[in-house]
Amino acid sequence: MEMEYLVEGKTYTVKIDADENRQEKADCFKATIGEKQYQFNVAPISDNCFSLLYDNNSRIAYVAEAEGQIYVHIDGITINLEDAVSQQKTFSRDSLEFGVKDEVTTSMPGKVVKVLVKEGDKVQAKQPLVIVESMKMENEIKSLTDGFVKSIHFGPGDLVEPGQPIIKLEVDD
Amino acid sequence: MFKKTLIANRGEISVRVIRACRELGITSVAVYSTVDRDSMHVQLADEAVCIGEASPEKSYLNIDAIINAARETNAEAIHPGYGFLAENHLFAERCETEGIAFIGPHSKALKLVGDKVASRKVTEAVGIPIIPGMKGKSTDVDECMVEADKIGFPVLLKASAGGGGKGMRVIYSKDELKDAVEAGMREAKSAFGDPSVYLEKYIEQPRHIEFQILADKYGNAIHLFERECSIQRRHQKIIEESPSTALDDDMRKRMGDTALKVVRVSEYSNAGTVEFLVDEDKNFYFLEVNARLQVEHPVTELVTGIDLVHSQLRIAAGEKLWLKQHQLHQNGHSIECRIYAEDPQHNFLPSAGKILFMKEPSGPGIRHDCGIYSGYNVSVYYDPILSKLIAWAPTRETCCKRVASALADFPILGIKTNIEFLHDVITHPEFSAGNTFTDFISINMADWRPKSLDQSGLANGILDEALIVAAVFSSSIKKSKTLPTKTESIPSPWQTLGEWRIGIGLD
């Protein structure tokens, strides 16, 4: 079996084959990642917990999955893996937040507190455009680019979802 | 003792109070907003009443709804927790009028100490040292401008009606003042229903040291020593400990006596905390009284052995204080870390979402006051505090190691948390050395970033392990038949032997 994962922008391939060794309460495998080969056995502890043994190293791994994102926690570190196959079909979170320059959006649901510009205003990169409140904290959302305010779609008191354009900008090219 | 108590709060503090009620044989009533139906505090309580929609004004700040819930369930007492209505003297007054015991001070004392500006006046009058600042509170930006000039920059803006860092900001110059005051007033209104603010001189490199007190309704009071709360981000405490490395026995006695003086002069009762700032020259200044049970109360409990929530309930029920000052001692060391739903990759902004899986830390000397669970949906409407990890050990050094070890085995998957950040603070040499000032984070952790794989995973081979585990996991959730395995499940004896009974051959 072969799986492909995207981790911090790089793609990795993991190949898993059965191993001749047998063990009670665990499954034995050979894994190949790039040049490296591992012989390991894995005992499932629960739906989200696996005990991994290789070269006498014992690791406990906690895993959970949602929407193509797999979270693996080992030794105090959580690693985000994306199933490289399904990744092409969904936007990564970062692009929603920072990728689209001419739409001013929030990365989490909140309430608009104050709009700092009006239609037609000239704006500069890093200039604060709108203040949104989430979880009792105010967050200034800054412009990613130079340009003009084309249209404003929400006002003070309105609830906004991630991805919804609060302000649309006309970008200088 | 009360037979039934309503807890007018949510999350981990509500769970804490419910536990204390169970231990004392008190029936607990939880209140919840529509989005909190599946919260842990609702699950744990004996009774639960829905008090309104998600937004705090409609639910946890809704005095009428809460009083109605108490009447409906015949609750004799209400514990307000921290935040929300805990320091709202109008709520305390309403309880008093309705004949419901408010687990806290009398509304008069609450009004006095709850008004941060008025309490400074009262304490200054009896010779307690205070930080120079505004004599009154304000909702007027221009007035603040004038006062700031009088005090001299930099100044610290604070909300008059409550704590928790809400509304707080350091203002370094006139140019920043207008926007800062407006933002502070908005945060204050949203958190406490009152936009009033005031300004104080900002002291550089201070240590934030507070004293826990307990006072009964008959004029008896004791202090339970200090907590050091200097590790803060954006004026919000994130790590607290007891004892403080800054105090010697002499200072401890003087500050403790001062704390009791504050309690006496404000006629305060039940649990409370007297906050001080200690400057570089070891001068201490009275800051304010926190007229509630605080988030960080567990460190005091672990070091003194006193259950503060039990104490609150007993005092509110009319018991005379059963402890004398000379009976109290600090034993060992305790450190608390506040676990927040925050995204360290994006400037620690609150992070909502579903907790796909979590495992609580445990072991000797580990206490976890928790309001979350695997599968719980962290919502955007409330404070992002998820839980508190508290450790106790005989020495500070061991306590630091204990906390660090627990933080390193504390998976919370599906949302972002500050756990990795906390671990790096606890293991920082300056923290181990006890150099904890309120600017610790901005000085020592300014360039902190979560470890990227180049720094951590790849070097330790953890990335490869993660890839292997992910592959095994992916196939198990897909229930794929293509996962190659040669292990056959060996039938257990219980399956192959058939029916059997003990002693069947003995008849």
Written description of the protein model:
The complex is a heterodimer of chains A (173) and B (507). Chain A is mostly beta strands. Chain A folds into two domains: 2-87, Glycoprotein, Type 4 Pilin (2-Layer Sandwich); 93-171, OB fold (Dihydrolipoamide Acetyltransferase, E2P), CATH 2.40.50. Helix content of chain A is 6%, strand content 57%. Chain A is built from two helices and 16 strands. In chain A, the strands form three sheets. Chain A has an eight-stranded antiparallel β-barrel with strand order 1-2-3-4-5-6-7-8. In chain A, strands 9-16-14-11 form a four-stranded antiparallel β-sheet, with no helix packed on it. A four-stranded antiparallel β-sheet of chain A has the order 13-12-10-15, with no helix packed on it. The radius of gyration of chain A is 23 Å and the shape is elongated. In chain A, 32% of the residues are buried. Residues 87-99 of chain A have low confidence and may be disordered. Chain B is an alpha+beta fold. Chain B has three domains: 4-103, Rossmann fold; 132-201, ATP-grasp fold, A domain (Dna Ligase, domain 1, 2-Layer Sandwich), CATH 3.30.1490; 207-444, D-amino Acid Aminotransferase, Chain A, domain 1. In chain B, the strands form six sheets. Chain B has an eight-stranded antiparallel β-sheet. Chain B has a five-stranded parallel β-sheet with strand order 3-2-1-4-5. A three-stranded antiparallel β-sheet of chain B has the order 7-6-8, with helices on one face. In chain B, helix 1 links the parallel strand 1 (4-7) and strand 2 (27-33). In chain B, helix 4 (89-98) runs antiparallel to helix 5 and helix 12 runs antiparallel to helix 13. The longest helix of chain B has 19 residues, at 174-192. The interface between A and B is large, with 63 and 61 residues.
